[in-house]
Amino acid sequence: MPHSISPTDTKDPVDEDSTLPDAPPAELVASDGGDIYGLDGSHVVVQDPASSNVKLEDLFDDEDEEDEFPSSAMSKEDVSSSSPPPSPPQIAPSAKYSDPGVMLAFYQRLFPFRYLFQWLNHSMKPSNDFGHREFAFTLQNDAYLRYQSFPTSDLLRKDILRLNPSRFEIGPVYTTNPRDRKSLRKSSAFQPLAKELVFDIDLTDYDEIRTCCDKANICHKCWSFITMAIKVVDIALRDDFGFQHIMWVYSGRRGAHAWISDKRARHMDDQRRRSIAGYLEVIKGGAQSGKKVNVKRPLHPHLARSLDILKEHFQNDVLVEQNPWAKPERAERLLQLLPDKALNDALRKKWEAAPGRSSVSKWADIDALAKAGASKNLDGKALLEAKQDIVLEYTYPRLDVEVSKKQIHLLKSPFVVHPGTGRVCVPIDTRRVDKFDPLGVPTVTELLHEIDAWVPQIQGPESEDGSKRVQDYEKTSLKPYMDYFRSHVGALLKAEQGVKRERENDDPMEF
User: Fold this and answer.
1) 196 an active-site residue?
2) What tens digit of pLDDT does each residue of 143-170 get?
3) Whole-prediction pTM
4) Among 129, 231, 422, 447, which is disulfide-ready with 97 (CB 3.0 to 4.6 Å)?
């Protein structure tokens, strides 16, 4: 996905699928007083939530964690109150996902602010892991507000409901509150401390090999490239590096992001991040470059394992579904990757005599003509290695490795709405990654209509008084994604508590 680390290279409209640049363009930066100006020249007054007084009870909210979501049941106090509670905004049937009212209703009724807080804070109790974390908002008028921070999930929620951004991104944890960066005597005192290790996969990087779609368009056929990538990268991160808390998130249109939340991953410096990105990078070179896979033999265990994973996908998802060498110019690309000129000439002659020959048949022709003696000097080992490299070139993950190399990169938050499609950026359950349907992910308008259309089930004995609470997200097709996120966060919090206990039990005199 496009990215930039140059402040002067961000004047083009922000790609809705891209990670945000490391520095904002001058025309979108908030002034010292907290004001920002949009691309249309409009002025937005931004108050600093961090500068307001935060009460102790706000920091240690002991309400049930479900209270952030509206529910269909009213408490007895609500019933007895003289004034009716404010009703959520009603969404017209013809409303579009880009309408500000739709986004506001989504943030009010469905966005999991508390689970997001726990995921980024690594604890139930507020800490600098969240309080010193940068958030960046893209407002409805395309203004771009960076270096926002919040002590609690409630304050983050209040500011998002006030500003109603079209999307927001998550940045690193800094040495101090990002809002206070300009008050520091030395700019060097403001440095990133931690950030999840992230990976970014975008189908536009597959345009030279996918035949069904291009640019921002996707279908089930080409989504299989993302499925392959998730399988290969996920097992490498777990088996080769020992990471456990990995969450894959649908980008909302044509890609996926990986967030690795292990403490060891969060605190890696940029050099270590570059090393891991380099370990996973196999496809190198642009669309006009020659051979893109150049790996040593014998194959590294990671590549051997990847080939085992990808072979079946190559046969079905590439050769059959994509038919990548149906056209003569694409078939010529295949011949360029084979090592023997005489074999290539024989293959070219055979294919020219049968213009409609499928890619499955052309792939089989390579071995058939090689065994038939099309080349007297054919090196069988070189041919085998060339075929392995071709499989890798057409199936191995095409990572935007620059996104993974630096702590300071911002990445779109899970559960935000993609501005171009209206789809929610939901987690992908890797246990059922083959079943994930990007075109079946609910849109924000569908979710709000599902809430309105929800009919209560027959009440059980435990809810005869009518007080059973059904959260709004439970009324929608967002529920399985939310449940998966809760499970992921719960496992992370449990692991963090275990690390803390181990640290407390360590003998302070041991070295």
Assistant:
1) no
2) 999 999 999 999 999 999 999 999 999 9
3) 0.84
4) 422
